């Protein structure tokens, strides 16, 4: 069997299993198994795969796992985000391109490197680490209730650089309200439970449910954040929350009802509502 034929074999297995991007995923897994880039694959695609090549078994196993709907990123162990490559596995939610909208907003609107940033529900650390590395902020704290997620986030922080302090905390529970932040960010669980149960197997069966389930209406974490955040923000501080495409108005209202002003909804690259931003009024406002 040639490398090309091996790729097509994997593609058919994935297509038969209902994997949407069967051809692309099969190729990614082949490149990963054989430690090749695309250029070398194109040069070697008509060559015979050595009969004793143990990497063929590795590829076959990866195809079998992907056919069982294990997410591609958990099989390759990586996901690109903001130009950085994060390690991901079953401990953390896979970073999505949608979340880059939030990071880009913070980088654009907050140029003071001395700004103190808090990232809630940090997961893989993709928001916190990206801000520390790309923004050069000197003080970034990142919290999560999951010890497994924090371990993964710390691994990413160590490997990618940037100064981030990781803490186990149920939102603000382990933090000192006397130490105010300039910016709070979060991509909290926001999928309604009923909707989550109907999602594709890659999400509902493999990604950590606690990072996805936003309770009955998807707003449970926003309620908690909106109530508690003012005590941890300085006057004039800003908050940036990722949301589901239909949650903008509800999250804006929650923030306004808890003292925030200048609320707005920002769309992602696909034109969907993605981030709610707000400010805590300054003294005298």
Textual characterization of the structure:
The strands form 2 sheets. The chain has a 7-stranded mixed sheet with strand order 5-4-3-6-7-9-8, sandwiched between helices. It has a two-stranded antiparallel ribbon with strand order 1-2. It is elongated. The protein has 285 residues and is of the alpha/beta class. Helix content is 40%, strand content 19%. Helix 11 runs parallel beside helix 12. The chain starts with a helix and ends in a 6-residue tail after the last strand. The model has no long low-confidence stretch (mean pLDDT 96). It contains 12 helices and 9 strands. This is Release factor glutamine methyltransferase. It is an enzyme of class 2 (transferase). It comes from Candidatus Lachnoclostridium stercoripullorum.
Summarize the SSE layout with pairings.
Blueprint: H1 3-16, H2 22-33, H3 38-44, H4 54-67, H5 72-76, E1 78-81, E2 84-87, H6 100-109, E3 116-120, H7 126-135, E4 139-144, H8 147-160, E5 164-168, E6 181-186, H9 193-196, H10 201-206, H11 220-228, E7 233-242, H12 248-257, E8 261-267, E9 273-279
Parallel strand pairs: 3-4, 3-6, 4-5, 6-7
Antiparallel strand pairs: 1-2, 7-9, 8-9
Short description:
By secondary structure, the chain is an alpha/beta fold. Helix content is 40%, strand content 19%.
Task: List descriptors.
285 residues, alpha/beta, seven-stranded mixed beta sheet, two-stranded antiparallel ribbon, 19% strand
